[in-house]
Amino acid sequence: MVKKILAKGYVYLVLLFLYAPIAVLVIYSFTPAATMQWQGFSFELYQKLFDPAESADILAALKNTLIIASISSVISTLIGIFASIGIYNMKNRSKEAMLTVSKIPMMNAEIVTGVSLMLLFLLFGIPFGMVTVIIAHIVFCTPYVILSIMPKLQQMDNNLYEAALDLGCTPMKALFKAVLPQIMSGVVSGFFLAFTLSIDDFVVTIFNIQGINTLSTFIYADAAKNGLTPSLRALSTMILVSVLLLLIIVNIFSHREKKSKNKAVAKTKGVKI
Q1: For range 89-103, the mean pLDDT
Q2: 140 and 107 in contact (C-beta within 8 Å)?
Q3: Tell me, what's the pLDDT at 273?
Q4: Helices 130-155 and 110-123 sit at what angle, rounded to 10 degrees?
Q5: How far apart are CA 139 and CA 237, in angstroms?
Q6: Does 89 have pLDDT greater than 50?
Q7: Long-range CB contacts (< 8 A, 24+ apart) of 85-92?
Q8: pLDDT tens, residue by residue, 197-214
Q9: CB of 48 closer than 8 Å to CB of 54
Q10: CA–CA distance, 125 with 22 (Å, rounded to integer)
C-alpha cells in the first residue's frame, strides 16, 4: 500500500515538475503585466501580439519561422520517404550501415551540426540567410523523418507492391498506389515531427542565420536585452495549443489507420467486428 502511494506520488511530482512552468506561462498570458504579477484577467497581450505597430518584430520572426519550418519539413519528408525506401531495400550489412549513418545527426550534439554546416557554407561562399537556415534544418530534420517511416516499412506487406507490378503498374505508380498508403501514418508523423523540430530549433539556426530572425533567435536576443516582451507569453501559449492540436490530429490519424487495418484483417479471417 505504501509502495503504491509512493509510486503514484512520484509520478504526480514528475508531472508537476514538467507541466507547472507551462501552466504558469498560459495563466500569465491572460494578464497585461510586464512582470510575472497578476493584474486581472485580460486579452491585452493577445491584442498587442496581432497589432503590427506593437509587435512588428515578433510577427516578422514568426513569419520567417513558419516559412522555414514549412519548406524544410516538406523537403525533409520527401527526402525521408525515398531514403527510407532505399535503405529498406538494401542488403543486411548495407542496411545496417546506412541506418547507423542516418542516426548520426540525431546522436550528434546540435552545436557540432550547426558549426559544421556553418563552416561548409563559408567554404563554398554561400551567404547566410533564409536559404542556409532551410538547408541546415533539412539536414537536421531528415533523420527524424527516416526514423518515423522505417518501422512502417518493416510492418508493410511487400506482396502488395509485387502484385501491383504484376498487374501492370510502373515502379513509380506502384510506389504511390501500394507502398505510400501503407506507410502514410509514418510519413505524417515524420512531417509533423520535422515541422515542430524546425520551429523549436535554436542551436543549428543561430550558427547559420544572418540578417533575419526566427522565433528562437528573436527570443534569445530579446531576453538578453531587457527581459522577454510580454506578448511572447501569448505567442508561446498559441504555439502550445497548436502543437497539442497537431498531436491530436496525428493520434486520430494513427488510430483510424490501426482500426482500418484491424477491420481488413478481420474480414480476411471472416471475423465480424
Answers
A1: 83
A2: no
A3: 43
A4: 130
A5: 28
A6: yes
A7: 85/153, 85/175, 85/179, 87/146, 87/150, 88/150, 88/153, 88/154
A8: 998 899 999 999 888 899
A9: yes
A10: 42
* Residue 182 and residue 123 in contact, taking contact as beta carbons nearer than 8 Å: no
Q: Note the pTM of the prediction, 2 decimals.
A: 0.82
Amino acid at site 204: V
Question: Is the Cβ–Cβ distance between 101 and 35 less than 8 Å?
Answer: no
**Nearest to residue 127, comparing CAs of 212, 221, 69, 216?**
212
Helices first, then strands: H and E counts in the chain: 12, 0
Q: How far apart are CA 87 and CA 75, in angstroms?
A: 18
Q: How far is the C-alpha of 57 from the C-alpha of 59, rounded, in Å?
A: 5
Kindly state the cell numbers that stand for 21: 512552468
In the block, residue with C-alpha cell 529498406: 88
At 130, is the pLDDT very low, low, confident or very high (cuts 50, 70, 90)? very high
